[in-house]
Amino acid sequence: MAVGPLTRQWRMVLAICCMAIAGLTAPALSQEPRAPGQHAYLGVGLSSLSRWEALMRGLQLRPAAAISKVEAGSPAAAAGLQSGDILLQIDGKAVESAGKALKLIAAKTPGTEVALRFRRNGREKTVRVELAVKPGEPAPAPAPEASAGEAAKPVEQPPQPQPQPQTEDLAKLDAEIGELYRRGKYAEALPLAERYAAAALQRGGDNFPAYAAAINWEGALYKELGRYREAEPLLQQALGLREGELGPQHASTLATAGLLGQLYAAKGQPDKAEAFYRRALEGNQRLSGKEGQQTIGTLYDLGMLYAGQGKGQAAEPLYRRGLEASEHLLGKDHPVTITGVGVLAMLYQVQGRFKEAEPLFRRALDNKERTLGKDNPETLNFVANLGECYRRQKRLDEAGPLLKRALETRERVLGKDHPDTLLSAGHLGVLYKDQGRNDEALPLLQRAAQR
Questions:
Q1: DSSP string covering 397-418, please?
Q2: Cα(338)–Cα(363) distance, integer angstroms
């Protein structure tokens, strides 16, 4: 980004706010019971970051997870974790999503000490945190004392009832898994998917169509949890079963191909990802004869894959096709449509095509203000983007109020140390530098350099 000649004192790297196709927020971290009534408790809320959001925060083009809240009095609060921190590792294991973090904590027991590595203001730190019992749950019961001369005996646990796969309602399980998936509760959905697969296998064998659907769910959930080694064979098996049962051009087969594209993109294997994305797109095009709703997400996925490789010319027609299809099928104000508006505007801005980016940013901003309100973080992304679009066109008088609004509102809504707030400080500092207001610019740029 050109900002004019700067001295060493003024030099800094500013990221560009990016629109994510989707962002899922996980609840406060907990686990499946390790003892009756007990769950490990860290006391944070997490949001999965798309690869673009991770890039904006200086983490390269890979998925990640950000802390969205820290509950008062929790182990996380005692360890000094803050909203806006980027969680990188739990006990040395990489965190690629909120769901992966949830799964790693779920493997722990209350009272276990874990090492959390996180990024704040551009610097990485490690803290050790002792997980607690979730508030409101009973503390562990003391072991019974042995009577005199008698050794203590382990307390016998009553036998746990085993699920009866033959009695499972497969359609109900499928619907429950789908709802949990849409809400981002991947770890909670995974045991249901395993039950679904066991029941389907017992009822009809591995050629039973419901079995392919069940392991497709398992693979999709493992993918979202960042457990790629477990996801890949399940999705490959689901693809093979669906090809044999339904044919290579069936909509369900193509949906699994699209999931494999997402998996290989997340694993950093762009050639494999592109092949599966292309297969899904071309197959769905043949099925419907036009861009259908099922292709929109894959168009954006493939566009993001190309954009991440610096192939803007290849990404643009895909974004445009996705946007046009979404407008036609879902309407001009649908959230998916506005996502398409945002990613296309960002691509234009990265390419320096500000005149084309400007009306798209305005359209997205108007929509978000109307549907989400002026102080919503998504709205503020477009406030900042439009202001930066004006600044880079040297329309400084128009840029100033927008960049100032973005900074002041983010300070109030997100906090002064949130990465997005610091990004806004940098944008406004560069604007003041462009206007020759050096005394006002310098502290803002120094503050932004902490990212």
A1: HHHHHHHHHHHHHHHHHT-TTS
A2: 8
Counting DSSP H helices and E strands in the chain, the numbers are 17, 9
| pLDDT surpasses 80 at 25 | no
Q: What does the mean pLDDT of the chain come to?
A: 79
* In the predicted structure, residue 33 carries a pLDDT above the cut 90: no
Q: Which residue has the higher pLDDT, 150 or 227?
A: 227
Q: Which pairs from 130-133 meet CB under 8 Å and 24+ separation?
A: 130/75, 131/40, 131/41, 131/42, 131/75, 131/105, 132/40, 132/41, 132/43, 132/74, 132/75, 133/38, 133/39, 133/40, 133/41
Q: Which residue intervals of the chain bear CATH 2.30.42.10?
A: 25-133
DSSP 32: S
- Two structure tokens written together for 113: 């000490």
Name residue 126's beta-bridge partners.
Answer: 117
| The pLDDT of residue 5 is above 70 | no
Terminal-residue alpha carbon distance, the chain:
17
pLDDT at 165 > cutoff 50: no
CA distance 395 to 36: 63
Give the chain's largest Cα–Cα span.
Answer: 88
Residue 34 dihedral angles phi and psi, to the nearest 5°: -90, -20
As annotated, the residues of the chain forming the CATH 1.25.40.10 domain(s) are 167-448
For residues 443 and 451, give the distance between their C-alpha atoms in angstroms, rounded to a whole number: 14
Architecture of the domain delimited by 167-448: Alpha Horseshoe (1.25)
Record the tokens describing residue 118, joined without a space.
């996180």
User: Could you give the 3-state DSSP secondary structure of residue 286?
Assistant: helix
Check if the beta carbon of residue 99 is closer than 8 Å to that of residue 187.
yes
Read off the DSSP letter of residue 35: B
Report whether pLDDT(309) > 80. yes
The CATH superfamily holding the domain 25-133 is PDZ domain (2.30.42.10)
Which pLDDT score, from 0 to 100, does residue 207 have?
72
- Angstrom CA distances, 326 to 48, 274, 286, 313, stand at 24, 22, 18, 21
The two three-digit tokens of residue 238, written as one number: 């689901």
For the cut 70, the answer to whether the pLDDT of residue 150 exceeds it is: no
Q: What is the mean pLDDT of residues 20-32?
A: 34
User: What pLDDT does 264 receive?
Assistant: 92
- What whole-number distance in Å separates Cα of residue 311 and Cα of residue 1? 18
Angstrom distance (rounded) from CA 55 to CA 46? 17
